[in-house]
Amino acid sequence: MCGIFGYVTVRDECARIVVDSLRKLEYRGYDSWGVGIGLNGHIRVVKRAGRIPPISPDLPASSIAFGHTRWATHGGVTDANAHPHLDCTGRLAVIHNGIIENFRKLRAELESNGHRFASDTDSEVFAHLVEQVLHAGDDADPDAVVEAVRSAFARVEGLNAFILLHHCTQQLIAVKSISPLVIGAGKGGTYVASDAVALVGLADRVHYLGDDEVAAIRADGLHLYDRADGSERVPRWERLTLQPTDTSLEGFPHYLIKEIHEQPRVLERILREHPPRARELANLITRSYGTFLVGCGTAGYAALAGSYLFSRIARRHVNSVVASEFKYQEHFLTDRSLVIALSQSGETVDVIEAALAAKRRGARVAALVNVTGSTLDRLADFTIPLLAGPELSVLSTKAYTAKLALLLLTAHVINGSEHVGLDLLWRAIDGMVRALTPDSQDRVKAIADRIADHQHCFVIGRGLSYPTALEAALKIKEVSYLHAEGFAGGELKHGVIALVEPGVPCIVFSPLDETRADILSGAMELRSRGGWIIGVSPEHEAVFDAHLPVAEAGDASPLVNVVPAQLLGYYLAVRKGLDPDKPRNLAKSVTVK
Ligand code: F6R
User: What is the dihedral of CA 11, 15, 16, 17, to 10 degrees?
Assistant: First the structure.
């Protein structure tokens, strides 16, 4: 979940490009940041707890430097625990993403051998481990340093990515297990980052580092080795297709609102480019015996919505399982099962583990994933790219609706009604555009003003709107810190209603489907206990205290109805003076358990 960036160039670059690139990766973690710069005879480390300051610190020019943004796992958020970490001699420095699962044992061993630690992190262990295997005479031999990294990495347990800066041999050495690293080349330099987004404008081609490789980045470019036997390998370069506009705000004040607005365009791309892929996925599903949709957080809610869509449209039982719970339920997988993994980043460790478990049992893995070249993309047997473009706000929005669009279309393909699915997606686009007009946004803003000071908010929906209620509550609470809980409308009487007090905001999703009568009864029950009812519905009802009108979109209603909830989360955060793109404690790629 940490951001990693490094470069080696032939000329002296301003080390400020490390800081500028780290800003693009801050969504991966923003507890603290740090830079290591290779200078004549030593490594200069600058690191601080907190966010990267808006004005970059003064840093010396150098041909080799790297940096890190942290999402703390081991050790509190302090300057000392920020990365990079040095070995005892200061001749090498390490940045890290992941968790060294056996770090206590390794640290005890290193301390008993006389190594002195300067932080509480697991990451520092790796610097001392390499130091331990690196003999004094090896300092001038670049290959010997690679060897030391290979053998140190063999002792580390867990899913990790490390970059080591060795200033005597002027190289960065990268090694990983599952946790992502991408090498970029272009404009006179070679770069390494945890996400290709950081390479936009710097590199024109990329090599996604494999778990079976070790990369040494030197002034003359990338040297690739086999992690098992150290033999040389040939990089698999691919063109970097991301454009600077993909990562710019394009006039919006925040990425969150920009990405909410991009949703109709993303759906149009899916409509234009993805029907053939939806047919292939439909084919995989109909040939499988047992299909499981897995995902975490927002992607988990997309999986749940998928199970409703396949049931009502395709008459197929497709299970949805929260990816972090999948390993406790995987025992029934066979070589005829299909696991469909949903993920924006393609790096969420629980999703990766679910996919790996499926592969171990001979099941097929299909992935709906936004980041091309991500771990999930590479390990799946079949991938449908979400075509949403980089999602840089920590909150997932456009990747969510992209997943719903693909699942809806696939369900219709299975049902033999692809054209109906396509029509529904056009209706969803139209509904989204209407939900994003200035008038619609003003209505949402007025509700944000009205409820901002409340402590709690309840959100209900039934059927297809149940996952929407869960997702709406997540959007609101994670960005505005207003405690919002989503429930199935029918569950209210079974306990939740005890929490409803006069004035408490209650959002009710009420499309014109078979759930309408029952959900409106639920709304009435909430109102009778003083709840302030916000209806998200194509038609006004007497029970609503406030109404957010939405277009009627049939089975595509989840794609449209989630938009006012996304906007409500955004405007609540703005009103409270919070950063909508980087809520506290969160990070975008959840690469640790
Ligand atoms: C919520 C959010 C998270 C992610 C979850 C899975 O707005 O962004 O709940 O959906 O961490 O992430 P991906 O989709 O990258 O696997």
Answer: 60
Dist CA 415 CA 417 (whole Å): 5
312-361 residue pLDDT tens: 999 999 999 999 999 888 888 999 999 999 999 999 999 999 999 999 99
- Residue 588 is among the residues annotated as catalytic for this protein: yes
Asked if the model's pLDDT at residue 246 lies above 80, the reply is no
DSSP 482: -
Q: Which residues line ligand 1 (CB under 6 A)?
A: 296-299, 343-345, 348, 351, 395-396, 474, 478, 590
Nearest to 448 by CA among 473, 476, 490, 407: 476
Q: Determine which residue's CA is closest to atom 9 belonging to ligand 1.
A: 297
**Domain 437-588 of CATH type 3.30.70.270:** no
Maximum CA extent, the chain: 82
**Domain 249-436 part of CATH 3.40.50.300:** no
Query: Which single residue is written with the structure tokens 């005829």?
Result: 336
Is there a contact between 93 and 45 (Cβ–Cβ < 8 Å)? yes
What is the average pLDDT value for the chain, to the nearest integer?
94
Using the mean position of ligand 1's atoms as its centre, give its distance from the Cα of residue 50 in Å: 23
Helices (H), 92-237: 103-112, 124-133, 142-153
3.30.565.10, 3.90.1170.20, 3.30.70.980, 3.60.20.10: CATH of 3-244: 3.60.20.10
List, for residues 190-241, the tens digit of each pLDDT value: 999 998 989 998 999 999 999 999 999 999 999 999 999 999 999 999 999 8
Q: Which residues pair with 196 in a beta bridge?
A: none
Q: pLDDT band at residue 572, thresholds of 50, 70 and 90?
A: very high
Q: Using CA of residue 464, residue 470, residue 474, residue 476, what is the dihedral sign?
A: positive
What residues does each domain of the chain span?
A: 3-244, 249-436, 437-588
Q: How far is the CA of 400 from the centre of ligand 1 (A)?
A: 9
CATH topology match: 249-436 vs 437-588: yes
Ligand 1 centroid from CA 425, angstroms = 23
* Catalytic annotation present for 576: no
Nearest residue to 204 via CA among 160, 238, 236: 238
121 CA from centroid of ligand 1 (Å) = 26
User: How much is the average pLDDT of 518-538?
Assistant: 96
User: What letter would DSSP give residue 171?
Assistant: E
Is 0.70 topped by the overall pTM? yes
**Among 2, 296, 457, 506, the one annotated catalytic:** 2
The residue type at 442: D
pLDDT tens digits, 22-43? 988 887 878 899 999 999 889 9
In DSSP notation, 7-34 reads EEEEEEEETHHHHHHHHHHGGG--SEEE
Given the residues 258, 403, 477, 588, the one annotated as active site: 588
- If you write DSSP's letter for every residue of 536-548 in order, what string do you get? EESS--TT-SEEE
CB neighbour class for 411 (10 Å; exposed up to 12, middle 13-18, buried from 19): buried
Residues 6 or more apart from 255 whose CB is under 8 A from it? Answer: 249, 391, 392, 393, 581
Share of the chain above pLDDT 90, in %: 82
Render pLDDT for 351-366 as a digit per residue (tens, 0 to 9).
Answer: 999 999 999 999 999 9
